[in-house]
Amino acid sequence: MATTVILGAGGRLGAALAREWSEAGEDVIAFNRAELPLGNAARLEQVLGSLEFDCLVNCAALTNVDYCESHPEEAFKTNGEAANELALLCEQKGARCLHISTDYVFDGHSRQPYKETDLAQPISVYGESKRLGEEAVLAAGPRHWAVRVSWVFGPDRPSFVDQVVSRALVEERVDAVNDKWATPTYSLDVATLLRPFLRRVDGGGVLHLTNTGACNWQEYGQFALDCAAAAGLPLKTLKVGGVPMASIKAFVAKRPVHTILDTSKLVSLGRLQPRTWQDAVAAHVNRQIAAGVWKAS
Ligand SMILES: NC(=O)c1ccc[n+]([C@@H]2O[C@H](COP(=O)([O-])OP(=O)(O)OC[C@H]3O[C@@H](n4cnc5c(N)ncnc54)[C@H](OP(=O)(O)O)[C@@H]3O)[C@@H](O)[C@H]2O)c1
């Protein structure tokens, strides 16, 4: 049986992949940050060098975009240099590296969905550090993948969509940015769509993997509230107001405006069609309610 190592298994995506794949019968060895911190090449080599595995999925990253902007050295070390060390280790062992990356490698100026072949031109330290990580992984050998996701949400760590619902349960006004567009990506759908790549023996390169469609944050939050209201949650407001990105004073780093990723390559390679972001958000909201995260009245 093929063995898969997952790094970043304490995070939103890594935790979901580790659980879903283990439950589906995959042989998974998962490490969280405390168990295997990036940034120490000798330790990575010591721990991973002694393991037998076929595939390594790297979900570990410094993901706070504003923190990265003010801590560039740490960002480049974690998102760039460590990705290089992991990919070289995989290459030495004949294993495949699936390195998770981001829509933030694009400048966001295009109104068309970005293809894998489009030029990555990041406008933030986070985006640049992730671009360097991608380049290193792809340069290590032809069997490795840089898998770009966007706006990840799921049951393992709260994200924007959870914050909107939680706020609407206690506050009468909820606002969200209405001039930045991308596609939400459900961590449980990533588990389904990426699973075939654990066993692929051919190929490698950049891959865009998100749900389908596009929205701005306001539309994303509004749809989540609509689902929550339909499920009977006692919301204090049913509407998400729109605000421009420029009004968010807490944003230190520049954010790309349009980063919808074209997923046609994924469909052609994996023969699996991602569902729409709306179907995925509805599934998430209902799952959270069923799990008792939010209580219906
Ligand atoms: N979240 C999104 O919307 C989004 C969008 C596009 C792309 N992505 C990409 O998706 C991947 C997974 O992100 P996510 O959403 O699961 O974010 P996350 O919840 O922040 O997970 C990242 C994990 O990496 C860990 N980590 C940070 N620095 C580390 C280090 N030096 N050594 C080892 N582990 C370290 C974090 O540990 P701590 O929790 O202890 O800090 C966390 O568990 C990342 O590559 C990210 O760039 C995410």
Could you characterize what this model shows?
- With 297 residues, the chain is of the alpha/beta class.
- The chain is 40% helix and 15% strand.
- The strands form four sheets. The protein has a six-stranded parallel β-sheet, with helices on both faces.
- Helix 1 (12-23) packs across helix 7 and helix 2 runs parallel beside helix 4 (72-93).
- The model has no long low-confidence stretch (mean pLDDT 96).
- Residues 8, 10-14, 33, 37-39, 59-63, 78, 100, 102-103, 130, 149-152, 157 line the site of NADP nicotinamide-adenine-dinucleotide phosphate.
Key features?
297 residues; alpha/beta; two-stranded parallel sheet; Rossmann fold; binds NADP nicotinamide-adenine-dinucleotide phosphate; single chain; 15% strand; globular
Secondary structure elements and pairings:
Elements lengths: L2 E5 L4 H12 L3 E5 L9 H9 L5 E4 L6 H6 L1 H22 L2 E7 L22 H16 L4 E5 L2 E2 L6 H11 L3 E4 L3 E2 L2 E2 H8 L10 E4 L6 E2 H14 L9 E4 L20 H7 L6 H14 L7
Parallel strand pairs: 1-2, 1-3, 3-4, 4-5, 5-10, 6-9, 7-12
Antiparallel strand pairs: 8-11
Bound molecules: NADP nicotinamide-adenine-dinucleotide phosphate.
